[in-house]
Write a sequence for this structure.
């Protein structure tokens, strides 16, 4: 399909075209604007790079970082210091070193806040900002005492050409960031912001996702600081105070700085508001008061300018996409389902084996001596009343509850001591009962992120279609929760795992969709070469999909075996207290 | 060295009181209040203005300051509990970051950005132990830290109001369903911690570096103190605050540590976080 | 009129409605059972009545007073008590403290504690140290102390052994005997239908049966059909 290919090439080329256009526009500004405005323009670019960095941590990865200008100070420090000692490479190399050094500082600061969630990063970063501020005033930047100015790079010595240089640096940073945001790293940032468990279950390390976000964010801060050192010649501690870091954080939240255009808008505000106040003769501190007040509003309402603008735009263009999606629901039968031969007969050595598993929470014994095996190419059902321990069992098998007794083996290899991420990578995948699909991604980006391998467009689109999911370019935020959870299943299946644990995949679907899902699940072992452990409450679904069934009741295995045998067991009937009779 | 360490007690007492306030806020209204010290700073500056421009007696100005600190805090509490009643701690705390920025900037506009001309309520030495001077301020702050922690503990375990507060902090929705007014109680907690924080800052400000930023940033060592008790234990918050103050006081005596001592609260925080990471578990909610 | 009345109540969560156009009355002393498969929206309906989630359409009233715009606290003052899913005790509070939260006098407290003599020895232990059944007893005692007019019960049996549950179930009848109107959500359908006078089957957010509980219990076909949306 040459038409679709052209469209895809255009989509890929678009950001680079924008980059070239931005540099051209920058050159245009540098020759047309007044000298003063060009100087202010450099300040806008310096701020923009810092805000871009903040956007990575606060916007994409959803954390509070209050020391962006401390990282900028690290960058400025290195540029000034390398200048003083006359290091080789010149300004551009020093700028790069400053960025790398700030990135390393970012990793060091992020490390203690990695595992614990919540506001720990905010406390650490504010602590660093406050300490660095006082320390900087005391020791000053290198070269301050001797008055050694940082020389601008050769051909960019005057303000107008340094502005062009800054534009080039900004465009390089923004393009790199754009590519990163659309890579696995970017997906992992958005995923970890929404759900850490969801991220780990997709085989991505949660600490690494956070660390890459910290590092990229701080590195951009460092580059911004180095650029500032080149702009002013002598960096001063007054440019890097904690108050300014706070204001920058608030501004990036207000603007929605994880979007590149909104970071530029935020930077314009950052420079324009105090400048205008100065012209009007109003104390410049009012600028931060206004930022503070708008920040309270933005944080309290949970929205930001960028999101509002984007949503309005999408709503205007969404009509078309919605009509497209409406033609595809799970309930619509897929023609090739009936044509598929039945699944290859299950058998052979069990792929997944669980032996003598026990877990207790305080006084409550959640699981007691549970044994379970999932043979090759089988769909095994796990049923039981609410609160019987089904979800706990899934948590134990997938590694989220490490303090369980007993063993879990995958293809004969013990999973003991392995993290959920490791287990997912070894081919032990699970889905969640709750929605853990990050709404900030497209279906395409999400499925590729979860699958962790190269997927052809046809394979991806075909599988989505098989499960009645919306097409790849759909935004997950426009998809209902039930369908999101089916998309989660698709992503994990495309990872071609050995075993797939499905935790009530049908919850939230209509009855018609239940039946349709059952038809597809029956095909899974044959189509994807995956064995399935299906946790379900709906006995109809279990009956139509599963070859063998294990019944869990009060944390113990009540019955296990072929479907008919188990479902006619009086003990099982009793566990459901009449519920089975009627179904 | 010993003199330095004991001189740090006054600051340590402030850290302890603010640390107790932060712990109470975190437990009872699910927020790490970054504007805790800033509210106190703002109230205190109003008092200084009243004393130096209006000739109001110091004690009355201090009362007004405490009232203002409580009111500012209550106002933030109102915003947070109205719009973010179901939000997580991070989202609620982020609002206080914006408030921190707002309060510092506003104080620059209203009161200028120079340190304020304080006339201390308390001053001079309280007593001497074998040649080492203990100041009145140190005695006051350490005492009030202990009193606030003990009183809060008693309130939470012995009184009907305290039990309702604990119920609210453990299961906010369930507590509301049985008729405990979450918003009212929440705002009361904000106001009370605001009042206590302002009182201690108003008393101690004259003996500390007292520009708006330095006073507002007292929240950093306070957070370090609260972190020792994992934002749960009041007694450990007091211990943490005092220990940090004493350490800083001792470090101030050693010239070779003059730059490094600024990083003490930061290192304290980092050390504690690394220690807590040992027993990390998967958070069921995320 | 004395009743908890729901008219065309619709509740939305996230992407779309989870419960649509439900109308029902709970009268004082009557038990109405709400049954149906998991994920059908029963819990959301109870939460809409007590104010945990807002309704997106329809009206709810208690004794003629519209309540959809009232706060949770205001609703509780009208005598609405909601027993949430999964043993809603306050873990660090003792048994007595838990129950006292709802009691207005020491007499009410003593009455409520007297319901479960098996709790006597554990009165001063934190609720988190109790077994699941004991915790559910604390919740029931707390509800009793509140002297409710209407009681919403969500899956009381969750995670409890049948023998424990059968000890707790008669309490529901006892509430009704004292004139409390009860809306009961229960996964053990037959037990719920055995207690209730009126029953609704909810599947995929819609009511598929509304009528006599006994009739539903006696005709598995009706129940089956109702479940399957047929």
């Amino acid at each position: 399909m040459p038409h679709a290919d052209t469209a895809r090439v255009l989509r890929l080329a678009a950001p680079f075209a924008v980059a070239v256009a931005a540099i051209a526009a920058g050159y245009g500004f540098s020759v047309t604007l007044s000298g003063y405005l060009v100087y202010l323009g450099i300040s806008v670019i310096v701020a923009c790079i810092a805000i871009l960095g903040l956007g990575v941590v606060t916007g994409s990865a959803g954390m509070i970082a209050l020391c962006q200008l401390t990282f900028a100070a690290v960058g400025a420090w290195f540029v000034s210091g390398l200048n003083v000692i006359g290091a080789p490479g010149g300004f551009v190399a020093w700028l790069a070193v400053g960025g790398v050094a700030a990135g390393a500082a970012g990793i060091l600061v992020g490390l203690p806040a990695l595992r614990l969630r919540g506001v720990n990063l905010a406390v650490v970063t504010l602590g660093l900002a406050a300490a660095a501020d006082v320390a900087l005033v005391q020791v000053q930047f290198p070269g301050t005492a001797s008055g050694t100015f940082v020389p601008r790079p050769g051909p960019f010595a005057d303000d107008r050409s340094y502005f062009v240089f800054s534009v080039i640096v900004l465009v390089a940073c923004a393009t790199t960031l754009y590519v990163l945001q659309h890579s696995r790293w970017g997906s992992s940032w958005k995923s970890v912001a929404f759900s850490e468990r969801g991220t780990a279950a997709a085989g991505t390390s949660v600490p690494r996702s956070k660390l890459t976000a910290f590092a990229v964010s701080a590195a951009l801060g460092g580059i911004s600081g180095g650029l500032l050192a080149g702009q002013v010649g002598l960096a001063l501690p007054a440019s890097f105070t904690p108050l300014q870091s706070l204001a920058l954080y608030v501004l990036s939240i207000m603007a929605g700085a994880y979007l590149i255009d909104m970071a530029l808008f935020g930077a314009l505000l950052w420079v324009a508001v105090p400048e205008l106040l100065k012209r009007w003769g109003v104390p410049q501190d009012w600028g931060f008061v206004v930022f503070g007040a708008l920040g309270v509003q933005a944080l309290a309402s949970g929205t930001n300018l960028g999101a509002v603008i984007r949503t309005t735009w999408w709503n205007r263009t969404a009509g078309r996409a919605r009509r497209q999606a409406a033609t595809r629901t799970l309930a619509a039968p897929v023609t090739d389902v009936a044509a598929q031969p039945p699944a290859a007969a299950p058998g052979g050595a069990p792929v997944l084996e669980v032996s003598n598993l026990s877990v207790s929470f305080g006084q409550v014994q959640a699981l007691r001596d549970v044994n379970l095996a999932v043979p090759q190419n089988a769909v095994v059902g796990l049923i039981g009343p609410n609160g019987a321990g089904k979800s706990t069992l899934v948590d134990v098998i997938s590694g989220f509850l490490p303090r369980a007794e007993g063993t879990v083996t995958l293809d004969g290899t013990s999973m003991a001591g392995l993290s959920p991420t490791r287990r997912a990578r070894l081919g032990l995948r699970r889905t969640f009962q709750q929605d853990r699909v990050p709404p900030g991604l497209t279906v395409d980006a999400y499925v590729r992120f979860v699958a962790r391998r190269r997927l052809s467009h046809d394979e991806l689109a075909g599988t989505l279609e098989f499960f009645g999911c919306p097409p790849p370019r759909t935004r997950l935020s426009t998809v209902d929760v039930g369908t999101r959870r089916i998309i989660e299943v698709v992503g994990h299946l495309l990872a071609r795992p050995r075993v797939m644990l499905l935790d009530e995949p049908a919850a939230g679907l209509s009855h018609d969709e239940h039946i349709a899902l059952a038809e597809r699940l029956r095909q899974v072992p044959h189509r994807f070469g995956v064995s399935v452990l299906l946790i379900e409450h709906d006995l109809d679904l279990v009956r139509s999909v599963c070859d063998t069934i294990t019944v869990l009741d009060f944390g113990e295995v009540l019955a296990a075996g072929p479907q008919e045998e188990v479902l006619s067991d009086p003990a099982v009937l009793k566990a459901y207290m009449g519920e089975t009779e009627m179904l | 060295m010993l003199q330095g360490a004991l001189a740090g007690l006054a600051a340590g007492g402030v850290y302890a009181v603010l640390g107790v306030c932060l712990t109470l806020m975190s437990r009872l209204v699910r927020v790490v209040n970054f504007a805790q010290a800033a509210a106190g700073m703002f109230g205190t500056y109003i008092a200084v203005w009243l004393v130096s421009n209006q000739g109001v007696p110091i004690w009355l100005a201090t009362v007004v300051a405490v009232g203002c600190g409580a009111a500012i805090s209550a106002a933030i509490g109102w915003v947070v509990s109205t719009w973010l009643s179901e939000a997580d701690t991070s989202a609620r705390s982020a609002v206080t970051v914006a408030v921190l920025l707002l309060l510092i900037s506003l104080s620059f506009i209203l009161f200028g950005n120079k340190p304020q001309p304080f006339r201390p309520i308390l001053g001079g030495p309280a007593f001497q132990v074998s040649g080492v001077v203990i100041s009145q301020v140190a005695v006051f702050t350490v005492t009030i830290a202990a009193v606030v922690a003990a009183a809060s503990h008693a309130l939470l375990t012995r009184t009907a109001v305290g039990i309702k507060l604990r119920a609210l902090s453990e299961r906010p929705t369930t507590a509301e369903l049985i008729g405990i007014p979450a918003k009212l109680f929440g705002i009361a907690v904000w106001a009370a911690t605001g009042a206590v924080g302002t009182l201690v800052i108003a008393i101690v400000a004259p003996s500390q570096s007292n520009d708006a930023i330095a006073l507002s940033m007292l929240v950093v060592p306070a957070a370090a103190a609260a972190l020792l008790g994992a934002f749960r234990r009041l007694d450990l918050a007091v211990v943490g605050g005092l220990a940090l103050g004493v350490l800083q006081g001792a470090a101030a005596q050693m010239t070779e540590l003059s730059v490094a001592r600024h990083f003490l609260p930061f290192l304290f925080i980092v050390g504690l976080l690394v220690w807590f990471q040992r027993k990390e578990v998967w958070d069921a909610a995320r | 009129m004395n009743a908890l009345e729901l008219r065309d109540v619709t509740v939305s969560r996230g992407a779309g409605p989870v419960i649509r156009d439900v109308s029902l009355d709970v009268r004082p002393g009557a038990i109405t059972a709400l049954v149906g498969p998991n994920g059908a929206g029963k819990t959301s309906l109870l939460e809409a009545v007590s104010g945990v989630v807002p309704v997106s359409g329809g009206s709810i009233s208690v004794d003629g007073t519209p309540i959809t715009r009232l706060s949770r606290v205001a609703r509780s003052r009208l005598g609405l008590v909601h027993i949430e899913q999964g043993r809603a005790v306050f873990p660090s509070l003792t048994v007595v403290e838990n129950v006292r939260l709802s009691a207005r006098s020491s007499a009410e407290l003593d009455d409520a504690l007297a319901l479960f003599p098996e709790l006597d020895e554990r009165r001063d232990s934190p609720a988190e140290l109790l077994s699941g059944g004991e915790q559910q007893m604390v919740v029931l005692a707390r509800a009793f102390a509140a002297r409710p007019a209407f009681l919403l019960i969500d899956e009381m049996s969750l995670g409890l052994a049948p023998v424990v549950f059968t000890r707790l179930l008669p309490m529901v009848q006892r509430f009704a005997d004292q004139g409390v109107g009860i809306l009961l959500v229960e996964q053990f359908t037959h037990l719920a239908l055995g207690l209730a006078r009126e029953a609704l089957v909810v599947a995929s957010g819609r009511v598929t049966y509304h009528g006599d509980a006994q009739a539903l219990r006696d005709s598995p076909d009706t129940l089956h059909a109702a479940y399957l949306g047929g």
